[in-house]
Write a structure and sequence with these properties.
This protein is of the alpha/beta class. It is built from 18 helices and 22 strands. About 35% of the residues lie in helices and about 20% in strands. The structure holds flavin-adenine dinucleotide. It comes from Nocardioides daeguensis.
C-alpha cells in the first residue's frame, strides 16, 4: 500500500474540476516542478550527509546541510514529499489540508520558515459563538475555551490549572529527570482525572475533545508525564507552555493556517533541493562501517555518507535494520510508543451557513463521530467547509465503519451542532492516517504510561554517526509542524558540528 488518496464523494466533484482556482493551478505547478526536479535513476555513490525522510524535519535538515556547503541526499519512502503534511484540492475549488494545518503563537520556527518561502497565513474564523453538545444538558452556545456546563466547569478549570502548574515544572528537554517523573508516568491522564475531579466522567468527556484531535488518543491511553511534557512544550524559550496555548484557537495552536495549504512548505523546500531528493527510496538498512562511513540501503540502491539524519516517525524506524544494532533502550522506546489514531473528515457547503447564525463553526460534543468541529474555510472560494477530527475511541467506533456510514454519522454530528443544512454538503472528503504505510497513524507518536520515564532519554541521543530528527524529538511543539522544523534545525547543527 502506498499513499491512500483522500476518499471523495461530491455531487459537483467532476463538474467543478475544470473550474479550478488560480491557487490550485499554482500548487499543481509547484508539485509538478518538484516531481520534475527530484533525482531520477541511480543514487550518488557517496555524499556528506544522507537524510532519511522528506517530511518537514528532513527537508529542513537537508536545506541547512546544503546551505553549509556540504553534499546531501534525502531518501524518501513515498512518491511525494511532506509526510504528515498533505494538501487536498477540493473539486469545488480551494485547498484544505489532510494532515498538519494550523499554526499559532510561539510556533515561530515554522512561521518564519514559511514566511521566508513566501507563504502567508490567514486566521481561523472566530466571530460568533461556539457550540457544545452535552448528553445531559443538550445543546449550548458559548464563548471562550471551556463550555459553561455547570456540572463540569469548576472541576475542569481546577484540573487544567493543576496540569498547567505541574507542566511548568517539567523540563522540556528532559521530562524524565523531574523528581516526580516516575510517579506521573505510572498513571494515565484518565487515571489522574478520575482521582482528581468530582464529575470525572464529565471532565474526561470534555478532555477527550482535546486528546482525540491532539493525540489521536483518549486520556486512558496516554501517560500523565507525557501530557505534562506536551503542555510544557506548547511554548518557546521565553513563553512557558500552557494548556490554553495548545488547545485554543485565538492565541493558541489553532489560530491560523497557510494560504494555499501547509504542504506548500515542504514543496517549496523540495523545489530548492531538487535532485538532492530521491523518492520511492525507502531505507531498509543503515550500516556503520569502519573509517567513519555509513552505508544506507534503500529500495533504489545504496549510498555512503559521513553522517546520517533519520527523520522518519519513531515507529517507522523499527522497520530499518541497524548495524551495529540500536541500543536496547532506544529499541524499547520505539517499540513501546504508539502512533495516535486520527482521521480528518471535511464537508463542503455552498456557503458557511453557520456564520449567518452567529456561529464560529467550532463545536464540541460529548458523543458521536464529531467530537470536535472547526470552520475549515478556503481562501479562494465563497464555500464553507466544516472539519471533524475523528480520533482515539471515536476513530475506533467510526474509523472502522464503511465510508457511507461514517459520512452519514459525521454529517449528522455537524447538523446537531450547526443545523439541518449540514446534512447537504456539495462535497465530502476524508483522510485516515492509520492507513498510511509510512506514517502509521497521527498526528504524533504517543507515550502510554511507563515509557517516558524509563526510556524517554533515548529520544535524541545519536547512535554513532546516526542522528535523529522528526517532530517527536523536539523540545518545543513536539508533535507539531513547528517541532518538526526545530528538530531538523537541531539535527543539522549536530551533524555540521561533527563534519
Ligand atoms: C491528521 C493530522 C493533523 C495534524 N494537525 C496538525 C496541525 O494542525 N498543526 C501542526 O503543527 N501539526 C499537525 N499535525 C502534525 C504534523 O503534521 C507533524 O508534526 C509534522 O508534519 C511531522 O513532520 P516530520 O518531518 O517530523 O515527520 P513526517 O511528516 O512524518 O515525515 C517523515 C517522512 O519519513 C518518511 N519515511 C518513513 N519511513 C521511511 C523509511 N524507512 N525510509 C525513507 N523514508 C521514510 C515518510 O514517508 C515521511 O515522508 C497533524 C498531523 C496529522 C496526521
Amino acid at each position: 500500500m502506498q499513499t491512500i488518496p483522500r476518499h471523495t464523494l461530491g455531487r459537483r466533484g467532476l463538474l467543478a474540476g475544470g473550474a479550478a482556482a488560480f491557487g490550485v493551478l499554482a500548487l499543481d505547478a509547484l508539485e509538478a516542478d518538484v516531481q520534475a526536479g527530484v533525482r531520477k535513476g541511480r543514487l550518488p555513490r557517496k555524499v556528506d550527509v544522507v537524510v532519511v525522510g522528506a517530511g518537514i524535519a528532513g527537508l529542513v535538515a537537508a536545506s541547512q546541510v546544503k546551505q553549509a556547503g556540504h553534499s546531501v541526499l534525502v531518501v524518501e519512502a513515498r512518491d511525494r514529499v511532506g509526510g504528515r503534511v498533505l494538501n487536498h484540492e477540493l473539486p469545488t475549488g480551494g485547498t484544505i489540508e489532510a494532515g498538519g494545518a494550523f499554526v499559532g503563537p510561539t510556533q515561530d520556527h515554522i512561521k518564519n520558515l514559511a514566511s521566508r518561502l513566501g507563504i502567508a497565513t490567514f486566521d481561523e474564523y472566530v466571530t460568533g459563538k461556539n457550540v457544545y453538545l452535552s448528553s445531559l444538558l443538550g445543546r449550548m452556545e458559548f464563548t471562550g475555551t471551556v463550555p459553561p456546563d455547570p456540572t463540569i466547569l469548576l472541576d475542569a478549570a481546577l484540573a487544567l490549572k493543576r496540569l498547567n502548574a505541574f507542566a511548568k515544572e517539567v523540563p522540556v528537554d528532559a521530562p524524565w529527570s523531574h523528581p516526580r517523573a516516575a510517579e506521573w508516568d505510572a498513571v494515565s491522564l484518565g487515571d489522574w482525572l478520575r482521582r482528581n475531579t468530582v464529575n470525572s466522567r464529565g471532565v474526561e468527556k470534555l478532555i477527550q475533545s482535546w486528546t482525540q484531535p491532539g493525540f489521536g488518543a483518549d486520556p486512558d491511553q496516554i501517560s500523565l508525564l507525557f501530557v505534562l511534557h506536551y503542555i510544557a512544550c506548547s511554548g518557546d524559550e521565553t513563553h512557558p507552555g500552557t494548556f490554553e496555548r495548545n488547545s485554543d484557537t485565538v492565541g493558541g495552536a489553532q489560530e491560523s493556517r497557510f494560504v494555499g495549504g501547509s504542504q506548500r512548505v515542504p514543496l517549496e523546500l523540495a523545489r530548492r533541493l531538487r535532485k538532492r531528493i530521491a523518492l520511492n527510496a525507502a531505507v531498509t538498512r543503515i550500516v556503520q562501517l569502519p573509517h567513519g562511513r555509513v552505508r544506507v540501503h534503500t529500495r533504489r540502491g545504496k549510498v555512503k555518507a559521513r553522517r546520517v539524519i533519520v527523520a522518519a516517525p519513531p515507529k517507522q524506524v523499527l522497520g530499518i535494520g541497524f548495524s551495529p544494532a540500536l541500543p536496547a533502550g532506544r529499541t524499547a522506546l520505539l517499540e513501546q510508543v504508539q502512533m495516535g489514531r486520527l482521521m480528518k473528515c471535511d464537508a463542503v457547503y455552498d456557503t458557511p451557513f453557520w456564520r449567518e447564525k452567529g456561529l464560529t463553526g467550532f463545536g464540541i460534543a460529548e458523543t458521536g463521530a464529531v467530537r470536535v468541529a472547526f470552520d475549515n474555510h478556503v481562501t479562494d472560494t465563497g464555500h464553507g467547509v466544516l472539519l471533524a477530527f475523528v480520533g482515539g475511541s471515536a476513530w475506533q467506533q467510526y474509523g472502522t465503519r464503511s465510508f457511507e456510514e461514517r459520512r452519514t454519522a459525521v454529517l449528522e454530528g455537524f447538523a446537531k451542532m450547526f443545523g439541518e443544512q449540514a446534512l447537504h454538503p456539495i462535497d465530502y472528503t476524508e483522510h485516515d492516517w492509520t492507513r498510511e504505510q509510512w506514517t502509521g497513524g497521527g498526528p504524533t507518536a504517543i507515550y502510554p504510561p511507563g515509557v517516558m520515564a524509563t526510556h524517554g532519554r533515548h529520544i535524541r541521543t545519536p547512535h554513532g554517526r546516526v542522528h535523529w530528527a522528526g517532530t517527536e524529538t523536539s523540545t518545543y511543539w513536539t508533535g507539531y509542524m513547528d517541532g518538526a522544523v526545530r528538530s531538523g534545525e537541531r539535527a543539522a547543527r549536530e551533524v555540521l558540528d561533527a563534519l
